[in-house]
Amino acid sequence: AAADKDGTPVFKFPRWRVKGKPIPEVVDAYKSVGAELNVMPFCSQFIPMNVIDHPKHGSIIYHPSILPLHRGASAINWTLIHGDKKAGFTVFWADDGLDTGPILLQRECAVETTDTVDTLYHRFLFPEGIKAMVEAVQLIADGKAPRIPQTEEGASYEGIQKKSNSRVNWGQPAEAIHNWIRGHDKVPGAWTVIDGQSVTLYGSSMLGGSVPAGQALEIEGASQPGLVTKNGLVLYGSDGKALLVKNLQFEDGKMIPASKYFSSGESSSVELTDDEKNMAEAIRNIWKSILSNVAAIEDTTDFFKSGAASMDVVRLVEEVKQECAGVQLQNEDVYMATTFQDFIQMFVRKLRGEDQEEELVIDYATKEVNNMTVNMPHQCFIDGKFEDAENGKTYNTINPTDGSVICKVSYASVGDVDRAVAAAKEAFDNGPWGRMNPRDRGSLLYKLADLMEEHQEELATIESIDSGAVYTLALKTHVGMSIQTLRYFAGWCDKIQGKTIPINQARPNRNLTFTKKEPLGVCAIVIPWNYPLMMLAWKSAACLAAGNTLVLKPAQVTPLTALKFAELSVKAGIPKGVINILPGSGGMVGQRLSDHPDIRKLGFTGSTPIGKQIMKSCALSNLKKVSLELGGKSPLIIFSDCDMDKAVRMGMSSVFFNKGENCIAAGRLFVEESIHDEFISRVVRVPCSNTAKEYFLLHPLLGVSGSCPQGPVSSMSYPCFSIS
């Protein structure tokens, strides 16, 4: 369709050759175009050499490996199977060999332990490959394209893997097994034998943290049993290290979540409405068009037993989504509902939103503190669920008042960021949030504020132990202002208006120009540690009120109130995927958010050097919008005609409020010379106010030791501010 719009001829022939000889009419049709250069994605061996050599500039080919490594048709798979630390692609000149021609240009990227064939392709090989092919064509046009002969040193050729030789060898370290599984995912699929039948393993990741509790499962040939846990199937390598598999597929083509291996219950069937029956018939016709060898599509017809392959899965998903706009369907859904009847039941549940009603499961960290029991989520919050980081890693979050460990928190990976962004994008593009009446969206935010108020003592207690905030201040300011902020922006949801712009009334058209304000899409938020919940509210409330979805990274040292906020958002009825929370490092999570092409805006509060890096990354990735609140050193200027006692009190409270952790803290005092000495004298004589007591008693780690002195202070060093 795009080519037709540009007047570009498109030819579709099933083959170039018959019995090794070029088909004359196909070659003639090609030559009629008069191409000066052939640009080919993958594989030249099916194209006759008189076509490859015909153009003035010959032919160039894209290959998804750093040649001469991994020649052949499964280069991305073998990059992962071999555990390569680098992946990449090559644009090279075609010759009569298999991926052996001279190199024009190459690009490479690092391979993460969480990468799959899909993530490597979509993150780097596809988008950067297109850019590189454009660059290659321009180099040829300018007469500057190199032809660098390929060396045979280090060259390798690996063929397309078959199911028969993709069985897992359990006598290897866990990382090698992980690479084998992810390199074969989705085709042909790495398999093993469980309970006498071959089972294919999908969705592998290394398990870096503690192994969750589960039920043992014997794996044929493995050194120790696997473990079916709530997160999936834990498997062990010969080195005793563990990996996690998310999905299992049986010999009959049926796929299940690995966590459900021992679950036998079948969900009850749903009764279809007349409209849903019409949709079911439309889907039956789609099945029929794909399974053309099947006489009739019965309820018991199995998609894969009828001859369907992986490309047919993609076609089925896309055609059903096109026929029934708005339904959220993934390739895995087909594998998990292989018969027509099961597929329709699954489809109708998704259409009704019933698949979203699964009860929220939270593995709380519980603590008795402040005369109450506080329940703290501590895992990543992605797509409406709390779950461990993809690699299983965790870290300790510390109570800064005494250095004790509060709990272990999930340490999000790059893969977790990609999943969270995908969930937020899906929620924005296809979920109910984007289609919701703004007034209904406001009602949900009001409800969220009410729940925060209902849990304000628990939130303030969590804030106090996680950030070191004084409890009374946390209750009034950290939590109280967060609730007020949410209510304020909830009221804005149905009041966001556009405007018309007066312009020259060009006749006869009488033009009208207007501005319509629309949500951007997926927004990323990176917040600091001084007011964890309040900074979350300030940035996310406006974002949500406008109809955006978000991925938020709390400060690594203060993640707990953000995760509690996520729990309350589910109870408020915020749809899944709208809010995603990723605890972890700024260098990993924050950087990936800055680089991610599907994020439309990023808000950051933090240091100026990091702000510069974020702005650069946002510009280079996709010119995403940026809001930055960066470092400063705010001064107070005090003149000789001031109320001296008040100036001293205000000067001290301005720097020490909230332990001195303020973006607007008066870290500098400029005092007029004529009153400078008297001001200094009064500063060191000032009796301890409530603020000073809070600072000295509760926060010795900030550089001032000892208990609060009773009466005047004789001498004191203030490491966090200066007086000039």
Automatic annotation (TrEMBL):
The protein's Enzyme Commission number: 1.5.1.6
Keywords associated with the record: One-carbon metabolism, Oxidoreductase
Catalytic center residues: E629
Stretches that traverse the bilayer: none
SUPFAM superfamilies, per the entry: ACP-like, ALDH-like, FMT C-terminal domain-like, Formyltransferase
Domain Carrier intervals: 274-351
Catalytic activity: (6R)-10-formyltetrahydrofolate + NADP(+) + H2O = (6S)-5,6,7,8-tetrahydrofolate + CO2 + NADPH + H(+)
EC class (word): oxidoreductase
Highest rank taxon of the organism: Eukaryota
Any Pfam family matching the protein: Formyl_trans_C
Matches recorded under InterPro entries: ACP-like_sf, Ald_DH/histidinol_DH, Ald_DH_C, Ald_DH_CS_CYS, Ald_DH_CS_GLU, Ald_DH_N, Aldehyde_DH_dom, Formyl_trans_C
PROSITE patterns for this protein: ALDEHYDE_DEHYDR_CYS (PS00070), ALDEHYDE_DEHYDR_GLU (PS00687), CARRIER (PS50075), GART (PS00373)
Family to which the UniProt record says this protein belongs: In the C-terminal section; belongs to the aldehyde dehydrogenase family. ALDH1L subfamily. In the N-terminal section; belongs to the GART family.
The name this protein goes by in its record: formyltetrahydrofolate dehydrogenase
